[in-house]
Each structure stands twice: as structure tokens, then as C-alpha cells.
Specification:
Layout lengths: L1 H9 L4 H9 L5 H25 L4 H8 L3 H8 L7 H11 L10
Helix pairs in contact: 4-5, 4-6
Length: about 100
């Protein structure tokens, strides 16, 4: 049984290896684009979840923060490059929540 586990573990590929194979190593233009798009998507998902949790519409969030509903929609779909200051305003002013950023 131990031999089967060892063989299984040898055949596993980690996510970083998959990204390197598909998009190239960090620092290449294709990988940088993937990383930026991935971040935009994750930020959009987090914003949408927080907005739904606060029980407000995209239009209400836009009005509270001086933006447009269409902009909120693009962010939530990961289709907009967003500045930290804008994201901060959406979370803290628009949703009344704290934005916490970690570097790890």
C-alpha cells in the first residue's frame, strides 16, 4: 500500500507547475496577464459576495460611492482593472466593511 501512495505522490503536479507550463514563468508577459486577470476576478467575486451579504444592489453601491452601476458590474465580473483606492472606497464607504490587505 505504501508503494501505491509513493507512486501516486510522484505523479502529482502542483498548481505552480501547471501555470508555468500553460502561461510561462512569473515575469513573462503571458503569465503577468494571467495573474492580473486572476486577481481582477477574485476581487470581483469578493466584492459581489460582500455586497450581497450587505443586502444592497449594484445601483445602491454605485450611488454611495459616486460610481456607476455598470462599473460595479464590470468589477464583479472581473472585467475591470481596479485601483486599490477605488476598491477601498467600495468596501469601506459603500459596504461599511473593513478592507484588510495582507502580504505573505
Amino acid at each position: 500500500m505504501k508503494n501505491m501512495e509513493d507512486n501516486f505522490m510522484k505523479n502529482l503536479t502542483n498548481f505552480e507547475d501547471i501555470l508555468n507550463k500553460k502561461y510561462g514563468p512569473k515575469g513573462t508577459s503571458e503569465r503577468d496577464k494571467y495573474e492580473a486577470d486572476s486577481l481582477a476576478f477574485r476581487l470581483g467575486v469578493m466584492l459581489k459576495e460582500a455586497r450581497l451579504d450587505a443586502k444592497i444592489t449594484q445601483e445602491e453601491l454605485a450611488m454611495k460611492t459616486g460610481t456607476k452601476k455598470s462599473y460595479i458590474s464590470r468589477i464583479e465580473r472581473g472585467k475591470s482593472d481596479i485601483q486599490i483606492s477605488t476598491y477601498h472606497r467600495l468596501i469601506e464607504i459603500g459596504l461599511g466593511k473593513n478592507l484588510i490587505i495582507n502580504i505573505g
